[in-house]
């Protein structure tokens, strides 16, 4: 169940049961109201009572009774409980309650299918993602066994299970007012409104208006009877008196007096009575007179009780007591007893400000504030506390309310009144004082338990302002940490002076000496006490350098030995807390466990900082952002990652090894984590849309539903403009960067991180394979824009290759170049070399693919082109080159510029550079396969072929929209030039002989004539970027827009289409591919053989 990260409620439950007195609460267990709740189908019971009336102890006995009965009937894991006792942090949200309920209801001997499905879905990601509230609600209902036909606003389609299930929630009133409390109450009301026959829900709280209104659907509201509570109090007081050594020796009359006074004046308030008993037990000497005196002067209520306890604190302990109260009230998390012991030794007005000799012992802490605080789990007096186990909290929610409320201000205990802003600044001032004394290099191995909290939270407390929301405070705290801890020394000192001025009203700062100032600066900039802190680097580089920013030093690795750096990213519950990690080196041969990080830089990115081995490491802010999203929120173990940014020293040597090692590194990775960056309003709906598509796909598998059923299904409605959101998601840089391609394809698991959300790449693969569903959901117009977007096309192509890769098909280099046609690379050659890790080992070893940093990009591209021609034995590269050539190029015309995206002209044939497994549309050279064999660094390509014709007339080019040329006028013009031209020939030529990926078998004359009359271009889109030309022998051709009169139309052996060549001084330049009606299937070769001999060699430059 650890994957759910539930709250361990057993400790709180056992503590409440320990306070339960035998025989008390029995009046409730025999009530008809309670018995009916236990047995009647689908019932809910709200038990309310005044503060301090013993609701929590009664609640624990109810849970114990129900569990005992269920176990006697053979029902295990049939109940779940949750105590909403006032605590800080995540205990206030619905998610934790749901996760805790699920964990308690789950059978120990088997995992239910609903929970296994939830686990599989989220554990497959890196790091394991957190289930949403909706997913948790559905899983909980599945465990309860909600019937299929029960109407529900929460969930549908659950199997019927008849085992009675009980849910208990204590102290709803102790949840802080706000949205989290509202969500919890609303959910409980919705759950009760369903009336699931086998579900029974019970909750306790004070009778507060928002709870009363929120639980309007509940069946029964029962107010705790004060008379019954008084009977329980009588049992409790009698027992406590008889158990106490000195009280038990008193005369019966005195014991009766104690019993009568505490029960009658307690007025049904268990909490008040318990506190008075503690006061009586503390009487010294305990004589009848002193007992009578104490009973005559009993406080009237809890407020007066707390006032008396606080007023009795000895003058010598008031400073420590007030400090403890402030820290417990306003610390960012519950504090451990060893931390409170340190707090008591901080003296802000003394020198030094921390004295370890003044530490309190655990018993001293309880004695300082008797009845107000408690340690859980309890400490055995003879043993030292176990670090990180025993928390110190207020003994009752009412203590916190009293200290921070308005009533204490007019009382004798006003000294202990707590104000939020001052108390937070006090904690900040105390934390800085503590760090200044304890976070020193020479003390790094000493035991100072408060250092971790003080380091993590001093900035939060210092930035606190009562009128700012959490988001603003987080930003202010992060800015404060950066200005002092991550800046140069001059800026640090300026920021530190501002901080001192801000906190000086709490306590004056000690007079500064050069040494003291330096220690204070170091205390807030360097965590010497971190286990991973690099002491050697500090002593060697920075100990006597008081000006430099203590930065992490890159250590060289030996890539020739397959040595790499790994980064252990430590968990943090604070989303915007400083990123802390440990960098270490390993050998890949040792098979280390790690996850690869795939990251792409963002435009206009700035520099961010993380803390590596205790020192500062600068890296792109976008990568810092991604690491924050990858960081686990809980747990003690760090997450081990590989990322190239912790290796760079910009040496060509390391760059060469990156090419060799990258594929092995990501193949060995357990999974790849892909950083998309933080959430944005522009595309936040897209991730939900991807999940929705996945859900639709799953529904089709389950129900064999058809597409038209989608619109009326139970899937969530899609927000307006979802097409735009999807398009914006694919504009994030990662989708179009080169190196992430193999980082995505090599590991079997891949998870994308979008802010604090995560989603597997498998979900995107389902998206890419659901084209008709997408069109149906977002509309034809948005769909057309989406599928024509280059980032979308590139992602879809990579998704296709990835699916084939895990079926055993290694993609070829031309296939990869086709898939990444629209991807971008910082270095031009990366458009090719970033793909090598995906090739077959034999191809990787090709001499032509060896990256030579001494050569220009053009020279390297020539060798890549030579490799492709030699290996794949066709001339498809000529078509590819004609669409990947800048206006000005130093490369031969037959060599593509692999670094640029293809132009907007649709290739006539993709062949080798296209969709894997696609058939050849044309084969103009017939069965000929006499391919050229080239040497390394070849500049010219000699190809055997036939000169078919040359260009005699060039007609007006089609423009980008394909609508600037009147087809009817063009047809008329061509017809005037060549009278024997038929409509079918014209139509086939402007369509390039194909439609929808298939050969155009027949031409429907009425459709062609209708299209001509409307001056529309065919939908296939081959006109764009081309023009019609007429050859000397009267052949109509669809040719490149650069074609000119006099250019040759040739058929090259090994080519699938005719090519346009232009004569130059050296030989020929290739202009591009063409379509010539009537020769596309090799018909002309027999004519050449009979009439024109063996053809000729064309030297192409």
Report on this structure.
The protein has 1101 residues and is of the alpha/beta class. Helices cover 41% and strands 13% of the residues. It has 42 helices and 27 strands. Strands 13-12-10-9-14-11-15-16-17 form a nine-stranded mixed sheet. Strands 18, 21, 22, 23, 24, 25, 26 and 27 form an eight-stranded antiparallel sheet that branches. Helix 10 (226-243) runs antiparallel to helix 11 (252-266) and helix 19 runs antiparallel to helix 20. It is elongated, with a radius of gyration of 39 Å. Mean pLDDT is 88; it is low at 148-161 and 702-718.
Task: Walk me through the topology.
Blueprint: H1 10-18, H2 26-29, H3 32-39, E1 44-48, H4 55-72, E2 79-83, H5 94-105, H6 113-123, H7 133-144, E3 165-170, H8 179-194, E4 199-205, H9 209-214, E5 220-223, H10 226-243, H11 252-266, H12 270-281, H13 288-296, H14 302-311, H15 318-330, E6 335-336, H16 337-343, H17 362-368, E7 373-376, E8 391-394, H18 397-404, H19 420-438, H20 451-463, H21 470-485, H22 489-503, H23 514-525, H24 535-542, E9 563-569, E10 580-587, E11 595-598, E12 607-612, E13 615-620, H25 621-630, E14 639-642, H26 652-668, E15 672-677, H27 684-703, H28 722-729, H29 739-745, E16 750-754, E17 757-760, H30 761-768, H31 771-778, H32 780-787, H33 790-805, H34 813-819, H35 830-833, H36 841-844, H37 857-872, H38 876-883, E18 941-957, H39 967-977, H40 983-990, E19 994-995, E20 998-999, H41 1005-1013, E21 1026-1031, E22 1036-1040, E23 1048-1052, E24 1059-1063, E25 1068-1073, E26 1075-1076, H42 1083-1091, E27 1096-1100
Parallel strand pairs: 1-4, 1-5, 2-3, 3-4, 10-12, 11-14, 11-15, 15-16
Antiparallel strand pairs: 6-8, 7-8, 9-10, 9-14, 12-13, 16-17, 18-21, 18-23, 18-27, 19-20, 21-22, 22-26, 23-24, 24-25
């Amino acid at each position: 169940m650890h994957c759910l990260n539930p709250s361990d409620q057993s400790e709180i439950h056992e503590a409440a049961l320990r306070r339960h007195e035998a025989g008390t609460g029995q009046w409730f267990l025999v009530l008809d109201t309670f018995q009916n709740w236990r047995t009647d189908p689908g019932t809910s019971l709200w038990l309310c009572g005044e503060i301090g009336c013993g609701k929590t102890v009664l609640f624990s006995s109810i849970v114990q009774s129900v569990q005992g009965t269920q176990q006697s009937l053979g029902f295990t894991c049939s109940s779940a409980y949750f105590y909403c006792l006032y605590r800080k942090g995540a205990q206030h949200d619905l998610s934790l309650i749901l996760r805790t309920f699920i964990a308690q209801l789950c059978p120990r001997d088997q995992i239910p299918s609903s929970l296994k499905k939830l686990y599989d879905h989220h554990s497959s990601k890196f790091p394991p993602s957190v289930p949403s509230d909706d997913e948790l609600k559905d899983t909980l209902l599945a465990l309860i066994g909600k019937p299929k036909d029960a109407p529900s606003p929460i969930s549908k389609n659950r199997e019927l299970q008849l085992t009675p299930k009980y849910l208990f929630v204590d102290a709803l009133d102790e949840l802080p007012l706000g949205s989290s409390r509202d969500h919890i109450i609303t959910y409980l009301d919705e759950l009760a409104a369903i009336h699931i026959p086998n579900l029974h829900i019970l909750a306790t709280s004070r009778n507060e208006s928002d709870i009363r209104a929120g639980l309007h659907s509940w069946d029964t509201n029962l107010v705790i009877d004060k008379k019954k509570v008084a009977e329980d109090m009588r049992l409790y007081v009698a027992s406590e008196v008889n158990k106490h050594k000195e009280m038990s020796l008193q005369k019966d009359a005195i014991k009766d007096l104690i019993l009568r006074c505490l029960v009658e004046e307690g007025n049904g308030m268990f909490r008040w009575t318990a506190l008075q008993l503690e006061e009586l037990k503390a009487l010294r000497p305990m004589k009848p007179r002193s007992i009578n005196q104490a009973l005559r002067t009993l406080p009237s209520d809890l407020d007066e009780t707390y006032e008396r306890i606080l007023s009795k604190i000895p003058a010598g302990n008031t400073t420590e007591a007030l400090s403890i109260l402030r820290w417990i009230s306003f610390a960012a998390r519950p504090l451990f007893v060893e931390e409170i012991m340190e707090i008591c030794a901080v003296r802000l007005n003394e020198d030094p400000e921390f004295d370890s000799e003044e530490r309190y012992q655990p018993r001293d802490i309880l004695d300082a504030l008797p009845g107000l605080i408690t340690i859980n789990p309890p400490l055995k007096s003879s043993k030292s506390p176990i670090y990180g186990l025993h928390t110190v909290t207020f003994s009752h929610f009412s203590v916190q309310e009293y200290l921070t409320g308005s009533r204490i201000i007019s009382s004798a205990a006003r000294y202990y009144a707590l104000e939020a802003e001052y108390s937070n600044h006090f904690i900040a001032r105390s934390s800085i004082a503590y760090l200044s004394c304890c976070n020193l290099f020479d003390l790094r191995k000493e035991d100072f338990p408060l250092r971790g909290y003080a380091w993590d939270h001093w900035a939060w407390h210092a930035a606190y302002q009562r009128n700012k929301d959490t988001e603003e405070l987080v930003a202010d705290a992060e800015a404060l940490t950066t200005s002092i801890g991550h800046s140069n020394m001059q800026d640090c000192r300026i920021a530190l002076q501002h901080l001192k001025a801000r906190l000086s009203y709490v306590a004056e700062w000690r007079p500064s000496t050069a040494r003291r100032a330096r220690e204070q600066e170091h205390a807030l900039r360097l965590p010497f006490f971190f286990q991973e802190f690099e002491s050697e680097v500090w002593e060697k580089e920075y100990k006597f350098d008081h000006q430099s920013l203590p930065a992490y030093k890159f250590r060289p690795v030996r890539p020739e030995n397959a040595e790499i750096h790994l980064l252990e990213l430590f968990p943090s519950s604070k989303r915007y807390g400083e990123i802390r990690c440990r960098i270490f080196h390993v050998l890949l041969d040792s098979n280390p466990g790690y996850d690869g990080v795939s990251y792409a830089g963002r435009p206009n990115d700035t520099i961010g900082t993380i803390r590596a081995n205790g020192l500062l490491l600068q890296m792109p802010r976008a990568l810092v952002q991604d690491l924050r999203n990858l960081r686990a929120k809980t747990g003690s173990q760090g997450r081990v990652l590989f990322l190239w940014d912790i290796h760079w020293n910009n040496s060509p040597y390391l760059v060469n090894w990156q090419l060799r090692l990258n594929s092995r590194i990501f193949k060995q990775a357990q999974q790849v984590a892909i950083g998309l960056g933080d959430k944005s309003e522009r595309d936040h709906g897209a991730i939900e849309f991807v999940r929705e598509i996945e859900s639709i796909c799953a529904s089709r598998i389950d129900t064999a539903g058809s597409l038209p059923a989608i619109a009326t299904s139970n899937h969530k409605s899609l927000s307006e403009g979802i097409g735009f959101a999807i398009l914006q998601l694919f504009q994030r840089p990662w989708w179009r960067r080169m190196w992430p391609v193999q980082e995505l394809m090599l590991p079997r698991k891949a998870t994308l991180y979008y802010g604090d959300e995560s989603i597997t790449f498998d979900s995107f693969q389902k998206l890419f394979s659901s084209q008709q569903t997408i069109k149906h959901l977002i509309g034809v117009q948005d769909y057309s824009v989406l599928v024509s977007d280059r980032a979308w096309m590139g992602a879809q192509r990579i998704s296709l290759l990835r699916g084939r890769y895990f079926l055993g098909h290694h993609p070829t280099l031309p296939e990869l170049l086709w898939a990444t046609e629209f991807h971008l690379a910082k270095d031009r050659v990366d458009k090719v070399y970033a793909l090598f890790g995906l090739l077959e080992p034999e191809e990787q070893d090709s001499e032509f693919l060896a990256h030579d940093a001494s050569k220009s990009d053009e020279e390297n591209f020539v060798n890549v082109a030579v490799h492709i021609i030699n290996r794949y034995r066709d001339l498809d590269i000529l078509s590819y080159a004609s669409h990947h050539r800048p206006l000005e190029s130093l490369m031969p015309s037959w060599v593509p510029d692999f670094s640029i995206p293809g132009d907007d002209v649709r290739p006539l044939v993709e062949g080798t550079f296209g969709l894997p497994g696609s058939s050849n549309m044309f084969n103009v050279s017939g069965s000929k396969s006499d391919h050229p064999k080239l040497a390394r660094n070849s500049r010219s390509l000699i190809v055997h072929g036939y000169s078919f014709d040359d260009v005699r007339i060039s007609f007006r080019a089609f423009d980008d929209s394909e609508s600037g040329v009147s087809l009817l006028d063009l047809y008329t013009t061509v017809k005037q030039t060549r009278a024997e031209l038929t409509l079918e020939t014209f139509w086939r030529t402007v369509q390039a002989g194909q439609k929808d990926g298939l050969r155009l078998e027949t031409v429907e004359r009425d459709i062609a004539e209708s299209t001509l009359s409307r001056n529309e271009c065919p939908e296939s889109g081959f006109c764009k970027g081309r023009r019609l030309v007429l050859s000397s022998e009267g052949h109509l051709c669809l040719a490149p827009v650069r074609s000119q009169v006099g250019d040759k139309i040739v058929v090259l052996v090994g080519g699938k289409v005719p090519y346009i060549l232009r004569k130059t001084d050296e030989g020929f330049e290739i202009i591009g591919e063409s379509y010539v009606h009537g020769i596309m299937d090799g018909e002309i070769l027999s004519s050449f053989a009979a009439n024109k001999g063996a053809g000729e060699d064309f030297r192409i430059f």
